[in-house]
Structures are given as C-alpha cells and as structure tokens.
Specification:
heterodimer; A: 258 residues; alpha/beta; Nucleotidyltransferase, domain 5; 2 domains; five-stranded mixed β-sheet; 8 helices; 10 strands; B: 264 residues; 20% strand; globular
Chain lengths: 258, 264
C-alpha cells in the first residue's frame, strides 16, 4: 500500500501523479510559473488533493523534466527520457517506440519489454516539430490548438509548407491566408509539416511496433494520423490516462523502485 | 554607356545604374506580391533619379531570389557571383565576403583573382539571418534601425542561450521581465547572431581580407561582434549601401557582358 509520487516540471506545464500499487489515484496538470519550484508545488498540491492524501503519506517522490533540479520535495531526480519510457510502457504495455511531443521539445525513443531505453533522440533546439510550432500556427489562424488538430479531417487540398523553420512557415501561412485559401487546407498543411518533422526523429531511432505517442500533442488527432501515414505504422494514443502525464507517471513508478 | 544591375530578394528589390566607372543612381524598395512589379518600380525610380530614359540602358543583369521575373535584363547570374563581384569592386583585396540579409546569410571565399572558391548559404533557419534581429526588435518594441546604436551602449553582454528565433524570443521577453537593461539584451543578441554566422563562415574557411555586406552590415553591434567572433579585423563596404552589393555586382557583370558583345 505504498504511495509514490512523480513530478514532471516542463517548460510550459508541470504535472504531478500519485500512485498506489501501480494505479494512479491522483493527478494534476498546471501551467508553469516563472519559478519551477512554485509550479511543482502547485501541481503536487492538486494531485494530493485529488488523491486525498498528504505529502507525508508519500513514501518517495521522483522529479523529472526541465525544472527537475528545483523541485523541493523529491527524493531523487531522474532524466526525462528514462521517466517517459517507463511512463509510456505503463500507459501502453506493448509500446516499443515512444514519440513524445511536448510544448517545447520532441523525443523519440525505442524501448525494450521492461521499458528500458535502447535508443533515443531529442530535439529541444528548434521550435519546429514541437508543440510550440502548433501554438504559433494556431495563433496565426486565430484558433485553438485543438481546433487546428481537427482541421485535417475537413481538408480537400492541404497546402505545402516548404520551410521547416517556424518563422518562415509562419510567413507562408500568412501568405496562404491572405490569398484566400480555405483554413482547413492550411491547417492540414500545418499538421503535415509538423508530422514530417517528427517523422525524421522517429525514423532516426528506427520506429518499431508498437508505436505509442505521448505528450500534449498526442491529443492532436490531425498530427497523429498524418504521422501514422508517414511512418506506415499504427500509432497508439494512451487511453488509460492523459498522455501528457507520461513523464510524471514514469517518475512515480521509478520512485517505487528506489 | 549605362548598365543596370537588379537584385530582387525576398524582402527588397534593389537596382543600380552605372556608367563605365561609377554608380549613377540606385533605388531600394520593399517587394510586394510581385517580384516583376518590384523590379519595374525600382528601375523607374532609379532612371528618374539619373535623368535617364529606359532605352539609354545598354545592358542589364538580374540576380536574387526573384531574378527570373525581372523583365528588363538580358542575363541572370547567381547571387554569390554578384555579391562577390560587387564587394571586390570596392575592396579588391577581399577574400571572404560575409553577407547577412533579411532572410538569409551567405559566406563566400574568393581566390586572389576574385573567383569564387567556396560558398555556403543559410536560408533554412531564420536564426542567423536578419530576421532574428527583426523579431527581437519587435519583442522589445525597439526600432530595428536603432539596434546597433543601442547595443553599443551596453556595459555587459547577456548571453542568449537559445538559438531558435521562437525560443530566443521567449527568452528575451523573460529577460525584459527580469528587469535587464535593453542595451545589454541587444548586445547579447548581436553576439548570438554573430556567433551563428561566424560558424557558417568558418565552415568554408575564412581568409583575410574579410568584408561584411548585406543589410545587417549597417548594424555596428553585429559588425563588431562578428569581427570578435572571427578574431579577425573586418572591413565594411562604404562606397555604397551594403545592401546593394548584389545589384552593384550585377551592374558590373552587365558591363562585362556588353564588352563581350553578350547583349541578348
């Protein structure tokens, strides 16, 4: 009946998960504040409330993510890659390839049957292929990222975005908008561009069955479907819990093994 | 005899009219939706400045991203060739030309005779082009043209850790929120851009004399930062606006073509 916790402080959101006997009993996602320690505390407080337990009841907590060194209440910090791999394995037990697209990064990894990382690649240098790319484009179109994801379904002739760079692609999108092209076709083109970029990362780790997608962008169906076509493989999006929680779940699982 | 060089880039169209020796008139304008119209507009403006009629132009060369749409030139040449030619006309000892434009950056290495030996080009990533500064100027609500002067007032350089324009913009906004001085942020940005372009240039080997051209060469802060990053003295094009080097080179090539009898 041990309680463990995981806290994943990312650049845009902080997540906390409380687990008991391999099950999630409380979770919380909050927007990141200027200070990672405050984001961590907020997320953890929310998760503890949801689980109706106190921090003292938690046997061990592991921290991960961009702000992991600043989390005050953790026993240990573990790399994002290790936590995401464990979390994805818990979310989709057959997963051998994990593609995680966060707000400001993208990771692709191949894992073994125990959720140990075999090979991985990360992009956190370039906004293209990260959630930020979609944020920028959604803002140009004046819609939410969720709406942008749904545009692919209604597209007739998706536009081509020739540039990988978010800045140049943004200029292209504005040009398309001004020339009166249907928003659905522009949106679909954006989702294709995004998927193209992510596919390069996924291919470089040699994606294998089953491919699982985590992170906030996993909720964007347009990107997921296009990426599946590009990779020629089905992509499983976790249903067991919010795919954004993968890192925090992995951290809570690792906390149980300490 | 009059010769015209026209450089239609993605943002601006430039035209230079030369006689056998000097620049007679030039014009620079924003490109709207049509590169062909932009070329016509700059030519018309330059002709009127020079007091010339169109049929007095003996030969023309076009260059730049929109060169295929320039209606009044007989030949087109690569930007690399034109930039090198234009820079060498003023600085005959130039062996390396580093050009930072609004949407690209290039480095060209020349031999003693001015022949292009190697070159490299970045137009894939906005970081390392003039656009980097443009986005940051907007984020800081500073005039792009004032960046150079402001940056030179800095007493400490704030390192900018993100290379990507999108991520660096967020970083700049947080630096402002932390209360850091605008000149110090700008100084950091100048060094960030210079660092990026210096590695581009180093990848083809940098030889003296190094000359900087392109619109960003007007920014004193970037100019100094680039010289510092390369650890070499640099020269600036002074005889004409550094944004014109491609058009000047094109006009000089038009003169060559005319002398060789290539007029169609």
């Amino acid at each position: 009946m041990t309680l463990t916790a995981g806290c994943d402080v990312g650049s845009l959101t902080a997540k906390a998960v409380i687990m008991r006997d391999g099950r999630i009993i409380g979770a919380q996602v909050v927007k990141s504040r200027a200070k990672p320690e405050i984001s961590a505390k907020e997320a953890m407080a929310g998760a503890l409330t949801a689980a109706r337990v106190a921090l003292e009841d938690v046997a061990a907590c592991v921290g991960t993510g961009y702000g992991r060194e600043k989390i005050p209440f953790v026993k240990e910090v573990v790399s994002e890659i290790a936590c995401h791999a464990k979390g994805a394995k818990w979310l989709v037990s057959s997963a051998r390839t994990v593609i995680d697209i966060g707000g400001q990064d993208c990771k692709a990894m191949r894992i073994d049957e125990h959720g140990e990382v075999i090979k991985f690649i990360t992009n956190d240098k370039c906004a293209s292929g990260t959630g930020r790319f979609l944020d920028v484009m959604a803002r140009v179109l004046g819609i939410s990222v969720d709406e942008l994801g749904r545009l692919s379904a209604g597209a007739k002739q998706p536009v081509t975005l020739a540039s990988t760079c978010t800045v140049w692609a943004q200029a292209d999108v504005i040009k398309y908008l001004n020339s009166g092209i249907a928003v659905a076709d522009i949106g679909a083109g954006i989702n294709i561009a995004m998927a193209n970029r992510v596919a390069i990362l996924a291919n470089s780790v040699k994606a294998e069955h089953d491919v699982c997608m985590t992170g906030g962008v996993a909720k964007n169906n347009g990107v997921v479907q296009t990426l599946a076509q590009l990779l020629g493989r089905r992509i499983t999006v976790p249903r067991k819990a919010d795919p954004q929680l993968a890192g925090a779940i992995g951290a809570a699982i690792i906390a149980g093994q300490l | 005899m009059f010769f015209v060089g026209c450089d239609v880039g993605s943002l601006t169209a430039k035209v230079v009219i030369m006689d056998e020796e000097r620049i007679v008139a030039w014009e620079l304008q924003q490109v709207g939706t049509s590169p062909g119209d932009a070329a016509e507009a700059v030519l018309a403006a330059a002709l009127s400045k020079a007091g010339l009629a169109r049929n007095q132009i003996d030969c023309g060369v076009g260059t730049g991203y929109g060169k295929a749409w320039i209606p009044f030139v007989q030949r087109t040449e690569s930007e690399i060739t034109c930039h090198a030619k234009g820079v060498r006309w003023q600085i005959p000892l130039a062996r390396t030309v580093i050009d930072i434009g609004g949407q690209d950056a290039k480095a060209v290495r020349l031999d003693a005779d001015g022949k292009v030996v190697r070159y490299i080009y970045n137009d894939k990533c906005a970081s390392g082009t003039g656009r980097f500064l443009e986005v940051m100027a907007e984020a800081m609500e500073v005039n792009l043209a004032d960046m150079g002067t402001l940056g030179c007032k800095s007493t400490c350089k704030i390192p900018i850790s993100n290379q990507c324009v999108i991520f660096a913009e967020t970083e700049v906004v947080s630096l402002i929120n932390e209360g850091r001085e605008i000149p110090d942020i700008i100084n950091g940005l100048h060094h960030a851009l210079a660092g990026r372009v210096a590695s581009l240039a180093r990848s083809i080997g940098v030889e003296q004399t190094v000359v900087m051209s392109g619109g960003v060469a007007k920014n004193q802060g970037v100019f100094q930062a680039l010289a510092e990053r390369l650890d070499l003295p640099m020269q600036a094009v002074e005889a004409f606006d550094p944004q014109l080097s491609g058009a000047v080179g094109a006009a000089l090539l038009a003169k060559n073509n005319y002398e060789l009898g290539i007029t169609n």
